[in-house]
Every structure is written in structure tokens, then in C-alpha cells.
Amino acid sequence: MAKKFFIAALVMAALFVLAAVPAFADGNPHVAEAIAHAEEAAKHGGMGHADAVVGHAQEALTHAEMAQKEVKNPHLDEGVGELKEAIAHGGQGHAEVATKHAKSAVMHLKEVH
């Protein structure tokens, strides 16, 4: 009887852990870093600093792409696309357009969280 109870408790514990796994994806540290850098990109873009948008957006993109290896989420994919657009426009000196894309990236990335 004790052996059956032990096995049942072990199975319940395993199910509990497996049920909690998707919740850990919500707190992915790469997503959090991507959000932080994308917010910085948007902030600097709002001040007209296209070069700073590029730097922060590139760092955000690095983290977002790392998160894509661990988390499958359409908002993450959209965020990556917006970061690439922010980098492209920022590289052309279009701070205003780059800022819009960085803000859109933040919006999408926050939906992953």
C-alpha cells in the first residue's frame, strides 16, 4: 500500500511540474531583455537619435532571436520583424519611423510575457 501511495505521489508531482512548464516560458529572460532594449530604442528614437535606435534595437533583436529558440509565439515573431525594420530605418537616419517600429516591437514583445 505504501509503495502505491509513493508512486501515485511521484506521478502527481511530475504532472504538477509538467503543467507549470508553459508558465516558465512567460518569464523568459531573453524576452525581458529584448523588451528593455526595445524600450530604450524607442526612447532614444523619440529624441531623434537614429544611431541609438539601431544600437538598442540590435541588442533587442539578439535577445528576441535567442528567445525564439526557446519560445514559440507569433508576437515574438512579429517583434523580431519590427526590430529588423527599426534597425533598417534607423540605419538610414529615419529616427521617427525607426521609433514607430521599436514601439511596435515593444507592444508585441510584451504580449509574449
Description of the structure:
By secondary structure, this protein is mostly helical. The protein has a single domain, classed as IL-4 antagonist (De novo design) like domain (Four Helix Bundle (Hemerythrin (Met), subunit A)). It is built from 5 helices and no strands. Helix 2 runs antiparallel to helix 3 and helix 4 packs antiparallel against helix 5. The relative contact order is 0.17. About 12% of the residues have low confidence.
What's this, in brief?
The chain is 87% helix and 0% strand.
How are the secondary structure elements laid out?
Elements lengths: L1 H25 L2 H18 L3 H19 L5 H18 L3 H18 L1
Helix pairs in contact: 2-3, 2-5, 3-4, 3-5, 4-5
Total domains: 1
CATH fold assignment: Four Helix Bundle (Hemerythrin (Met), subunit A)
End-to-end separation in angstroms reads 44 Å
- Let me know the number of strands: 0
Q: What class do helices, strands and sheet pairing give?
A: mainly alpha
| Rounded mean pLDDT score | 85
Global morphology: elongated
Provide the CATH top-level class: Mainly Alpha
* Number of H- or I-type helical stretches: 5
Alpha carbon gyration radius: 19 Å
**Strand residue content:** under 5%
Q: Sketch the topology as an H/E string, one letter per element.
A: HHHHH
Which regions have little confidence, pLDDT < 50, spanning 5+ residues? 13-25
* Proportion of residues in helical segments: over 70%
CATH superfamily heading:
IL-4 antagonist (De novo design) like domain
Named at the architecture level, the CATH assignment is Up-down Bundle
